[in-house]
Amino acid sequence: MGIGLVDPILPALATQLHAGHTQVELLFTSYLVVTAVAMLVTGWMSSRIGAKRTLVIGLALIAVFAVAAALAGRIGGIVGFRVGWGLGNALFIATSLAVIVGSASGGFGGAIVLYETALGVGIASGPLLGGLLGTIISWPGPFFGVSALMLIALVATLVFVDRTPTPAEPSRLSEPLTALRHRSLRTTSLVGLLYNWVFFTLLGYAPFLMNLSALRLGAVFFAWGVLVAIFAVLGATWLKGRFGTARTRSTAA
């Protein structure tokens, strides 16, 4: 939910803080670039302090920097605090998927579907809540909303996620890059790069083109996220079983 919560208030943010579209888009650029780079070291860190501690640190960082962004008052400060937000996001996202895969009773495939479904539901409900908070409280509202959600997730992780032991042999920093020697993984990573590039271009810039209120923008992205969740659970599974993974991915692209 935290990924899309601030999306509906981007036009209002630009207007109220007298910022250009390029400056506002740096909210996504700084956040995502740091997330991408930091993900290269999350496995190394998790293998030394344990997955649960890594999750907790990531959630705490997001909660703190989301509040700091809400209190910044200037676009430059918000962009800067999004850097710390992106670091927390990297620690959480990469580690949470590993924990879900390791804990799921439905097997590896079921765990991935569960993860993608949660992502779709979050993308759906996040912008809707962000639009509501942006309408009621103005632009800082969604940032405070992100912090509150991350605190709830932090408590849930502490209470419900079992303590994960550290591996006998810690990961090396070079492992994510040396893994790219595998051709299929390298190709899939490149496809993922292009897909996410397009996805966040639409997510980040579309609000400026639709000329809608924050609440209506939230409703648009809510409908989009609902479809993501539905097709992640039903459509993707059925198409993969009928046509195979490669053909399904090619048709979707």
Care to describe what's here?
The protein has 253 residues and is an all-alpha fold. It has ten helices and no strands. It is globular, with a radius of gyration of 19 Å. The chain starts with 9 loop residues before the first helix and ends with a helix. The model has no long low-confidence stretch (mean pLDDT 85).
Brief description of this entry?
This protein is an all-alpha fold and 253 residues long. It contains ten helices and no strands.
Task: Annotate the secondary structure layout.
Elements: H1 10-16, H2 21-49, H3 51-72, H4 75-103, H5 107-137, H6 140-160, H7 175-178, H8 183-210, H9 214-243, H10 245-252
Task: Summarize this structure as a short list of keywords or feature phrases.
253 residues; mainly alpha; Growth Hormone, Chain: A; 83% helix; 0% strand; globular
Mean pLDDT over the full residue set: 85
**Uncertain regions: pLDDT < 50 for 5+ in a row?**
none
CATH fold-level topology: Growth Hormone, Chain: A
Instruction: Provide the β-strand percentage band.
Output: under 5%
Total count of domains: 1
SSE pattern: HHHHHHHHHH
CATH superfamily: MFS general substrate transporter like domains
Kindly name the structural category: mainly alpha
Largest sheet: none
Number of E strands: 0
